[in-house]
Amino acid sequence: MLLSKSVDQAESLKSGGQLPAALRIVALSAAAGSALEQALIRWQSTDGHPVLRVRMVHSVMDAMALLEEAADVDVVFVEWSADLDVAGAGLAGLLRAAYAGVPVVAVGPPQVECSTQVLAQGVQEFLSEAELSPAVLYRAALHSIVRLRRETRLIELSLQDELTGLPRRHVFLDRLRWALRPNNRTALPCCLFFIDLDDFKQVNDQLGHAVGDTVLTTVARRLQRAVRAGDVVARWGGDEFAVLVFGVSTRAMAKLIGEKLLRAVHVPLPDEPAGLPTPTASVGGLFLETAEQAPGELVNRVDMAMYEAKFAGKGRLRLK
After folding, report:
1. Is 239 a catalytic residue?
2. Distance in angstroms (rounded) separating the CA atoms of residues 64 and 18
3. Digit-coded pLDDT (tens) for 122-132
4. What is the DSSP letter of 160?
5. pTM for this one?
6. What's the pLDDT tens digit per position in 271-300?
7. CATH number 3.30.70.270 is the correct assignment for the domain at 169-319
8. What is the CATH class of 2-159?
């Protein structure tokens, strides 16, 4: 009863367009005639659990080659066997499929220590080789797809600000650390900017958070358009943004870029509600020719520059 309910739930998801109608599978087993291979053959001959195609391979190298060539694989089944070099580096290599959007289901002995070891490697599902019925295989395949999509979404949310779609603060700091690496000869000189929207709290208080969100998303898009694709625009938090611009050869060029960021913000919003002022920002900038200071020290310096611009009258640039 429980198994039928799980399959019915999977069918419901599939009918909503979230899951493939018929599965395209790559399966890796130790040898022909393995429990996994026999179970997949039974699955293909069973009505009600559709399989479009199964490709069986018996070595990690063949599986990796097949995954690199095929862009139409929905799920990978892997037999966890001492007779197959799947453990360690072999499985780690195969799991790269997951990063390309293909989930991995492992099949192995029923012992708990085996399942925990395999799941710790990052697979989406583990099945005991004693329970390989067509319904169980089908359910595991669909569940692994759902789990991988959720894992991928959680990773995206950890890297991107949900409202603006911009990188989060820790992603920006990672990029700044990369720029400051001693052996990095391509990132410097560069320029670091902090941008704080002026009087943004009044927008939220007087016009509501929905209007405030519109201002933030609009400013985010404008800042992205004001720099090149290889530069970094991030949401630092609240109404603050951080920008890292590469290939800035002179302080005069840094000043021009800072002024361009100011102008990008200071444009009326289309269809702005009554009472919404044209956004302005206070911008602090730091021209970096060498990597003599730690990222934290640089962040403090550019933050001070931004507050100096705000205290000087708002809508200004202060470049260090």
Report:
1. yes
2. 26
3. 788 888 888 88
4. B
5. 0.60
6. 777 778 889 999 999 998 877 788 889 999
7. yes
8. alpha beta
